[in-house]
Give the backbone structure.
Amino acid sequence: MEKIKVIVGLGSCGIAAGAKKVFDKIKDIQKTENLEFELKKTSCIGMCYREPLVEVIDETGSFMYGEIDEDKAAEIIEKHLKKNEPIKDYVVKADTFKTIDNTFIDDQVKITLRNCGYIDPENIEEYEARDGYRAIKKIAGQSVSRLDVIQTIINSGLRGRGGGGFPTGLKWKFANNNKAEDKYIICNADEGDPGAFMDRSVLEGDPHSVVEGMIIGAYAIEATDGVIYCRAEYPLAIKRLEIAIDQARKKGYLGKNVLGIHGFNFDIYIKEGAGAFVCGEETALIASVEGERGMPRKRPPFPAASGLWKQPTNINNVETLANIPWIIINSAQAYSKYGTEKSKGTKVFALAGKIKRSGLAEVPMGMTIRDVIFKIGGGIQNDKKFKAVQMGGPSGGCIPEHLLDTIVDYDSVNATGAIMGSGGMVVMDEETCMIDVAKFFLDFTQKESCGKCTFCRVGTKRMLEILTRITEGEGEEGDIERLEELAYQIKDSSLCGLGQTAPNPVLTTIKYFRHEYEAHIYDKKCPAKVCKKLLTYEVDPEKCTGCTVCAINCPTDAIDGSRKEVHFIRQDDCIQCGSCFTKCKFDAIKVF
Amino acid sequence: MRITRLNTDIIEIEQEKADLSSIDPLIEKYRNKKGNMIPILQGIQEIFGYIPRDAFEKVSNETGLELSDMYGVATFYSQFRLNPIGKIIIKVCHGTACHVQNANAITDAIQDALKVNDGETTEDGLFTLESVACLGCCSLAPVMMIGDETYGKLTGDKAVKIIRGIKRQETN
């Protein structure tokens, strides 16, 4: 009989939720009680909302246990492992029966994430056991020509998953056309969108798929060196990449004459980004790899002609590269059978915000945003009302409820004014103020603007000032128009994607939530009750017990009342700090 | 111009003379390598927790990298610090997911409790408070990271309680 396997998900989010403690506990019990089972690690499986996750695989199949703490882990060992009685109440996913979480899983198609949560990312053999490095072996074994590899990727319809959506095969073709002694392939792993974590999960969960994708790309364009530009904020991803590259070298997937392909010498090294959102832009990334300030350069020349160290350079995103080996093994047709006419394959989304099931979901292109949020994501937390979903991060926009049936593909999402971006979906409910959200993103892009183009550097600052004024009750007639005017000027006059898209969050919120702007400017009210300066706090005499906590905590002594008597807030002295509201234990402070 | 700014920026805080011999291997490792500036600066920060002024000068003297270029790079990227930091760094996540789950309240509460502003270090040198763009644990929002430990699903009170607990441990 095969040994029972116990697998603990140890991605960044799992560890943050306490998975390391659970792993140690299981290890501890195994040791002290001398139990026969195989204890293994894996990475994020995508069900972040159920972390920590522990999977038990016995002869009847797999049982994924969710929200496991140390006590529950001990219980699982006691019942499932020792007595062979699975604890169904804790199971979130199983081979033999359905759970409420099946709606999260059933409509997903896992290509990019095919190995995430299934293999130990630090073990190359486990990757190989699931078709790993078979794609490059196929190329080497059947002597597939460079142009045939490129043609396969063109036929698959794969488009850049970093946000731009440029056809990957074509990009490779351009790089292949430019002949040079040294050529580079760069993996852009500088995932800077606040609220997106797809790339991190792939790097942590399946680093070899990215390495293999790069090797295939390098073969196709005849690159000599590979660089993975990864943000320093992802220490676990960097560690696992280092292990993966080292293992690949030892197995001969990297180095001189890779897999016996004569003259194909290729190696990869990691460059740690130092924290600058603009480095997601290709030319800025190249400047950063060269050790300079990450400021974008003028194009043309495009990187395919003159990139890193002025040599032909091809840059692909993590998710794009992770798809490559799958396409080579399974054919272009197998990939392009998913998706819409112009957007093929699948896309990974990071679901976050006020959604019930935060996590990673990989869906075929063409699914509606509604299905992603309500079917897979389970709807809105606490069953509140949906207001908008933000797609594309600081370069994207907010999609309102009436456009929820928009399908997920590059062109349809662009038509709403948002962008597909790298795949962040941050869901907002009735308690989110759209002006505050626009301000949040602009604050981000304004700080991250590299300062090269005047319109981006100064324009975003002016827009932020106007938005700040509006949220503080100082909005004036004409502000909306001023914002729009500035927005279009910035879009038209910026060199790189950061500036060209920075106004999008403002433009989409004006387009779909103009009434909220007007409420702030003309009525001096924040309908979502977020902008503090626009709120009025009052004591509910029915609920007030006269405990005096609010009065004690009020920084301006604006609350009158003696013990056991109903208190009263003097509006003239109130600075809307909200301290009474947060401190009151009886829900007696009302906000208008 | 930039070099004078370098002076004023750093002089504000009395810096202890750091022992710079520890960066010798780093300089050796990257000497004459293309694109070496960022890895050198990252290495120095790894050793000292920030980049001491003297280190800039030493690297410049020994490698020929321009002081102005190095300062330009060090101030461009958010990772680099020019001032010493506290023993423990509190990173409060202000990514989108954390923002809509009210991360501002977490920063406010910590600022109140520790009597520091964002980016500053407490008087006793124990804590430095930082806002960061995204820690990638969006499902646990709002989140903060102290050392290697991540704390999720916070409220202002919870965050302050955790920090007080750490302070007790550290001062006992």
About this structure: The radius of gyration of chain B is 18 Å. Strands of chain B lie at 88-93, 127-132, 144-146, 149-151. Residues 1-14 of chain B have pLDDT under 50 and may be disordered.
